[in-house]
Hints:
Blueprint: H1 3-8, H2 22-25, H3 59-69, E1 76-79, H4 81-93, E2 100-103, H5 110-118, E3 121-124, E4 128-129, E5 135-136, H6 139-147, E6 154-160, H7 172-182, E7 187-191, E8 217-222, E9 235-238, H8 241-250, H9 258-267, H10 270-294, E10 302-303, E11 310-314, H11 318-327, E12 333-334, E13 344-348, H12 352-361
Parallel strand pairs: 2-3, 2-6, 6-7, 7-8
Antiparallel strand pairs: 1-9, 4-5, 8-9, 10-11, 11-13, 12-13
Helix pairs in contact: 3-9, 4-5, 6-7
Amino acid sequence: MSDFIAALQRPHLAAITPYQSARRSMSGGSVWLNANEAPATPAFPEQEQWHRYPSFQSDALNQAYASYAGVSREQVLSCRGSDEAIELLIRSFCEPVSDAVMITTPTYGMYAISAATHGAAVVDCPLQQAASGDLQLDVAAMLARLNDQSAAPVKLIFVCSPSNPLGNEVDAAALRELLDGVGERALVVLDQAYIEFVDPGSSQRDCATWLADYPQLVILRTLSKAFGLAALRCGFAIGQPALIEVLRKVIAPYPLPAPTIAGAEQALSATGLNAMQAQLADIKVQRQQLLDDLRSRSWAQRIWPTVTNFVLISVADAQALVAHCQAQGVLIRNQSSQRGLGECVRISIGSKEEMNQLLEVLPQ
C-alpha cells in the first residue's frame, strides 16, 4: 500500500480483515450451497439468477468503466451512486470528533451531511468571485486552513466540478495548485458527476490521467446524470489501487444489485455509449434554447454560466417563482439556502416537451 495512503487511513483499519462473503471468498462449483440462498425466486420464476447474491465487485462492470474513463480496473470501485463513495471515504479516512473534511460552499450538500453523521468536523472555505465573474476555489485560504496545526486535521477536501449547484467548472490551474499544495497530507476528492456535459476540449475531461502525477486525487463519477440511470444507483470511485483497497475493506458485501450491474454494463457498451451521446447532444440543444429564452425575460436578473444539464438563475423572489411553477405542475429547485445564492433557482434540462411546458408557465 502507498505509504501516505496507509498513514491517512483510520489507524484501526490496518488491522481489519474485510468480510469474506460467499461470493468474495469462493468461486467455481456447480452446486452453490454456501451462501444461505433460496433455490429459486417464487415471485419471479423467469428470473433464474435473482435468488443469487451478486458479485462483491463485478469485474466486467469495473473493466467497462475503467475502459470508458481511461484507467485500469484496479483503480475503480463500483458503488451505490457516488453518494456511497462519499460515505466510504469519510468512514475510511476520518476519525470521528478528531478529523475534519473541507468543503467549498456553495456546493453539494451531502459532503457536510455525511461528515456530520459520522462525527467529523466540517471546514468551509467558500468559493470566491474570480476575475471571470464566476465563483472559484480560494486555494490560498484552503491551504492556510490545511496548514493550521492548531485545528482538527483535514483528511478529505471535496471539490465539485462541474459544480452543483453553480453549473460551472473549477479552474484547472487552481485545482492543480491545490493538489500540489496538499501533497500527501490529505485526499482531494473531485466529484465529477456532471463531467459528460463538459465540452470535449476541457482539461477536466481527462482528469483521470492526473492520477499518475497526483496519487492524493480521488475522482467520483456516476451513471445517474448523462447516462440517465438515476434509478439504478450506480457510481464509481477512481483512485490509486492502494486507496481502492482501503475502500474495499469498508464497503458492504454486495453493494450493487444484479439488475443494476446488468443495466450499467449495457449503458457502457458501444451501443449504450452512442445512445448516451445522442441524448447528451439533445440536452445541450435544449439548454441553449432555455438560455436564449431566459435572456428575454426581465425577471431573470442573472443567468449563471453553465456546462451542465441545469441552469442557475438569480431572481427577485425565488420562493414565489418556484410556487408559481409548481402550481402549474412544473417543479424547479429553490437554491436560496446556499451560501451566496440568495434568491436563486435551479432549472434542470428535460425533454423538448418538458422544456416547452416550462417556457409556457414561466412569467414573461
